[in-house]
Amino acid sequence: MPLALLLFFAGAPGDLESAIRAFSQVYAAVEQNAADPVDPNRALYEGALPGLLRKLDPHSVFFSPGQFDQLKELQTSTSKGFGTVVSVLPGRVIILQTVEGTPAARSGLQPGDEIVAINGIRLDWLDMEQLAGLLGESRRRPAKLDVRRPGTRYLLQFTLTPEALASPSVDRAYMLEPRIGYVRATSFEVETGKQIKEAIEKLGGASLLGLVLDLRGNPGGVLTAGLETAALFLPPGKKLLSIRGRARQAEETSVPERGTPYNFPLAILINGKSASASEIVAGGMQDHDRAVIIGETSFGKGLVQSVYPLSQGTGMALTTAFYFTPSGRSIQKPLSGGQLIGTPLWRSLETQAEFRTESGRLVRGGGGIIPDHLVGTEAMTRLRAALDASGSITSFATSAIKTLPPVTAAFEVNDTLLESLRSFLSENRILPGVSEWSADREWTRSRLRQEIFNQTIGVEKGDEVESRRDPQIRKAVDLLGAAR
Question: Which of the ends of the chain has fewer CB neighbours closer than 10 A, N or C?
Fold first, then answer.
């Protein structure tokens, strides 16, 4: 056996036939001499084959028969759920909104209800990771909920059966300022390009003076949807991206000849969770000087992956090429620990030190999309962290709503209500100092208004309040105003 291992590791590099022969010798020696019996499926499907692909890059994977079946099921399954929008806190889940016509709404669940147990599992015993896992699992089959309703002495019980729900990828569209629109896309699905156009038209279409397109947290998805989105803002014939790989002919994709793009100023928001198609859109707009990019550097996933069915019900996802922006920047970040970084393609990328936009403006390469304006997220002070982690504002809003007149979009949190919140916090042992309270007073007023809107008018209206204090959105509005 030691001789076989020596032959395996000392084989001539690049000699495929010798390497395969050495592998066969090692496997035969292991099968004959290992202390425990060798399961060939486990040795190959969980060991040798995944190990081979893992050495290429982190995204190339081998699927055992069971894993490949799961992949095919995920590709064809529909999203199921109960139709609730919830606030997830450590050990607590509070319902903010129920969607009309869904199992949650039909059952009688209401905003402000707190779910204390799911299928007999108490939520206050779970950490955030366990809680997220339980919530995901509960959407797969009927779930029994124990619910605490404010003003009700006993726990209420609901049994909900998940149903297929329509979840549009464009979930927010409203006005930030007169004729300055805001549209958020959470992913790129088949209909996303169409949904973005419909949202823009609802806000005013070509009459807008500017648009903020929010791609933060958007992991990508269907490439054609990203290309359709970019084509909404670029004239026909403009290059959108190129694809290059060792074993495939280089391809270029441009804006279709038919189409009338919008011409208003555009700002795109990205962060570290914006990936793939989101980066293609942001990179294309940046390279053509069509949009200002704001936020944080994107994830850096620009791999073309091909899925190959193999024998015995197995499969493989293999990286076969890379995506490049119109200026030639690779969207993919260097893959530490993988061999791709040493290939001729990667070495040629590293030698090109400069990338320029259509107007000659210098932009940085190296993977991911680096914003034109790096802007962080909302600051988190000690008081803000305590209020969010405890769910105090959400709980207070639930009780305060019962004493308020009907809430409309014109509702504002006055000083009396704010002082009532402060008393509520004191009763719950949250005692900020005078300077702390003064520094975060207006932030707290805004958060309380947001939570009251969440539970009365709807989460979308609450998001509008949040956007007013979002530093990345505020920067976008300022820049669009300057462009105008």
Answer: C
Which CATH number fits the domain 170-305+319-374, given the four candidates 2.60.120.260, 3.40.50.2000, 3.90.226.10, 3.40.50.720?
3.90.226.10
**SS3 category, 208:** coil
Residue 101: Cβ within 10 Å count: 11
101 by DSSP, 3-state: which? coil
**CB 271 within 8 Å of CB 218:** no
Candidates 197, 301, 461, 475; catalytic one = 301
Q: Is 287 a catalytic residue?
A: yes
Number of neighbours of residue 341 by Cβ within 10 angstroms: 16
| Mean of per-residue pLDDT scores for the chain | 85
Please give the Cα distance from 260 to 269 (Å, whole number): 23
Look at strands 80-81 and 61-63 and give their pairing.
unpaired
Coil, helix or strand at residue 165: coil
Reported in sequence order, the residue ranges of 90-142 that DSSP labels E, i.e. its strands, are 92-98, 114-118, 121-122
301 flagged as catalytic: yes
User: How many residues are there in the chain?
Assistant: 484
Query: Could you tell me the two tokens for 209?
Result: 């003076």
SS3 243: strand
Identify the CATH homologous superfamily for domain 80-164. Answer: PDZ domain (2.30.42.10)
Which of 113, 146, 287, 470 is labelled catalytic? Answer: 287
Annotated active-site residue in 276, 278, 327, 395: 276
Q: For the full predicted model, state whether its pTM sits above 0.90.
A: no
8 A C-beta contact, residue 279 and residue 220:
yes
333 in catalytic set: no
Question: What average pLDDT score do residues 357-377 get?
Answer: 92
- Inter-helix orientation angle 459-469/471-483, to 10°: 70
Show me where the domains of the chain are located: 2-56, 80-164, 170-305+319-374, 382-483
Alpha helices in 186-249 (DSSP H): 192-203, 223-231
If you write DSSP's letter for every residue of 263-313 in order, what string do you get? -S-EEEEE-TT--THHHHHHHHHHHTT-SEEEES------EEEEEEE-GGG
* Residue 23, pLDDT above cutoff 50: yes
Q: How far is CA 95 from CA 88, 394, 464, in A?
A: 9, 10, 19
